[in-house]
Amino acid sequence: MERVPQWSHEETLELLKIRAEMDKSFMETKRNKVLWETVSMRMRLLAFPRTAEQCKSKWKNLLTRFKGSEAMEGEVGRQFPFHEEMQRIFSERMMMRLDNHEGKGKEVVENESSDDDDHDHDHEEYYDQENENKKEEEEKKKKKKKRKKRRRKNGDDEVVEVLKEILRRQREMEERWMKELEEREEERRVWEEDWKRTMEELLVERMEMERRWREREEERKARDEAMADRRHSLLTAILTKLSEKL
């Protein structure tokens, strides 16, 4: 059995390029043997002597590897060297199917050979499932966002209630402070009035004491003057009698 030459990177890229250009024909044609012969002929024109069977077998191998890479996560799944090219083919195919659904109201059936059709159909189902999974994830994210929004709203409501309670307590404290301030002001006013009244009473009492002291002082002066007058009269009388006797 003749050993099939290994495919080079450049040769594989050309195969994928040709297969991408003819993908619509593969999807619309029931028998694709002629299509693979066309692929082989175009490869030969590019100086890559590959038979139709070799091209078909390589395509199946690439499909299998791509499907395996899609099942892996992160950069590990991107290690398949032709991942982007294969993904581009199937992305365009999915867009084409969507356009056909919208324009004709029915699906376009891909009709390649039985083996090739199984691989493509499986991969399209995989893409459909992946889209469904993405939709489910988006729905979960939306629900999660809604729950977060509700929790945030509930949290905001709780914050508002707490702020209202703080404001209510602050108003109560301010009212108590104002009441205490008014009470203290009233006490101060009463104390000042008592103090003024006491000072006025003390002033009146002091003025009364001064008045009585002046009266007593005047009475004392009057008595002293009267006594002085009596003494003067007495001395005058004594001196007069002595003068008469002499």
TrEMBL record:
It comes from the Eukaryota. Residues 110-119 have a biased composition (Acidic residues). The keyword NAD does not apply. Residues 141-153 have a biased composition (Basic residues). It comes from Dioscorea cayennensis subsp. rotundata. Residues 7-63 form the Myb-like domain. GO terms for biological process: regulation of DNA-templated transcription. SUPFAM superfamilies: Homeodomain-like. Residues 102-154 are annotated as: Disordered. Keywords: DNA-binding, Nucleus, Transcription, Transcription regulation. This is Trihelix transcription factor GT-3b. It is found in: Nucleus. InterPro entries: Homeodomain-like_sf (IPR009057), Myb_DNA-bind_4 (IPR044822), SANT/Myb (IPR001005).
